[in-house]
Specification:
The chain contains 15 helices and 16 strands. By secondary structure, the protein is an alpha/beta fold. Strands 1, 2, 3, 4, 5, 14, 15 and 16 form an 8-stranded mixed β-sheet that branches. Strands 6-7-8-9-10-11-12-13 form an 8-stranded parallel β-sheet. It is globular. It binds zinc ion (ZN).
């Protein structure tokens, strides 16, 4: 099917050749789409009676947002913990009494695949309503062979039953389950000897992720897990240096990971090594905000090291329930010192890079997938400025189809 977008006010996209923001606002600009791909952008493109016409109503067009770090596969939320937090309890206090991730693990293990799917589907649809057209999604609340496979199978079911594209990540190394607290290396053995081979055999994930942090997976354990994943064709990415400088960012550089995420406490040498090895720095200001912390990651340190930044929601039941990329842009612009244009690149093109999809999504460009947002706004700055206003979409286009 051929579709043509007419009445375009402006097209705003990152230009990956000039490495700069591109703003096109000449009159009679149109976009031609064949099936799911942009095949032409220009003035007064040819007419054909079989074309499907999409009226942009003089709106501004951007690529759909790409959210490259989420944990949406959980069962039962943790709103009861929020009450405790509102009474002054910290995340750590709650974790000590059996709450936190332990609660999510218990609930997910008890639920069937179908129950988890039913509960997760509205969440998945909600991403799309907020303008996110691709997410990365991690397992990691099961932490047994069967429960990790179950979580990844739910991701596959969600992918098959929604318009959102969901890129699966195996994260059996999210935490050590209770039953392995006395013998942590045995759990690393389980991940490397049983989980990774099975995930690869069933083709259930593109990436392998590890929570590399003091008190969680050590640099040595993380390296073993990620290298085993690589042997089985799973691309490496890391949760790195969220609570302390644990050496995780340096490990990301050493193994040339696709991304290292959080980076709250990474040192400058490690950030430089990451930049030199094309590891995308993913920053997650929504988590800092949701946890009520004062100190945000400073994007200037990453930019000065020469690194590429992506921003993501870190959507999960415990430390961030934000799904809106405009809000994440707002937080990164204001609190992480990421200028507006860089925040836009960090929510479209760079997360596509972190997911190794930058040849296909994240830009409004000929040959790219037609994942497009048509906004009822005049300027890019209105996106983070009015972050809480979802009725500004004229249309959301996913794979060439108008979905709202
Ligand atoms: Zn995370």
């Amino acid at each position: 099917m051929i579709s043509k977008i007419i009445n375009i006010g402006k097209i705003v996209t990152w230009d990956n050749v000039l490495d700069d923001l591109s703003v096109c606002n000449q009159s009679n600009l149109e976009i031609m789409i064949q099936d799911n791909e942009i095949i032409e952008i220009g003035e007064n493109l040819e007419n054909n009676k079989d074309q499907n016409i999409i009226d942009a109503e003089n709106g501004l067009i951007t690529p759909g947002f790409v959210d490259c770090h989420t944990h949406p596969i959980f069962f039962g939320d943790r709103s009861h913990e929020f009450k405790l937090r509102s009474e002054g309890k910290t995340y750590q206090d709650i974790a000590k009494t059996g709450g936190g991730i332990k609660y999510s693990i218990k609930r997910l293990r008890e639920a069937t695949k179908e129950q988890i799917f039913e509960e997760a589907l509205p969440r998945i649809k909600s991403f799309l309503k907020k303008g996110t057209t691709t997410i990365e999604a991690k397992s990691g609340y099961g932490l047994t062979l069967n429960d990790e496979i179950k979580s990844l199978e739910v991701i596959k079911m969600l992918n098959d039953n929604s318009n959102l594209d969901i890129i699966p990540t195996f994260m059996g190394a999210h935490d050590f389950p209770m039953e392995y607290h006395e013998n942590k290396n045995a759990y690393v053995d389980l991940i490397c000897n049983e989980m990774i081979p099975r995930v690869a055999e069933y083709k259930l994930a593109k990436f392998c992720d590890v929570f590399c942090e003091i008190g969680y997976f050590s640099v040595k354990q993380s390296e073993r897990i990620l290298k085993t994943g690589m042997d089985y064709g799973l691309l490496p990415r890391l949760h790195a240096d969220e609570f302390a400088d644990s050496g995780a960012a340096q490990l990301a550089a050493d193994i040339r990971a696709c991304s290292a995420d959080h980076l709250m406490h990474s040192n400058k040498d490690a950030l430089k090594a990451m930049a030199d090895n094309n590891v995308v720095s993913v920053i997650l200001p929504g988590t800092t905000f949701f946890l009520g912390k004062k100190e945000y990651v400073n994007a200037e340190n990453i930019i000065n090291s020469g690194g590429e930044i992506a921003i993501a929601s870190d959507y999960n039941p415990g430390s961030c329930t934000i799904q809106s990329m405009p809000m994440i842009m707002f937080l990164s612009n204001l609190y992480c010192k990421l200028p507006l244009e860089q925040g836009f690149k960090a929510s479209t093109y760079n997360p596509a890079k972190a997911l190794k999809l930058d040849q296909n999504i994240g830009l409004v460009k000929k040959g790219y997938i037609a994942d497009l947002l048509i906004w009822n706004i005049k300027e890019l700055s209105e996106i983070p400025y009015m972050f809480n206003n979802e009725d500004r979409f004229v249309k959301v286009i996913k794979n060439g189809n108008v979905i709202n």
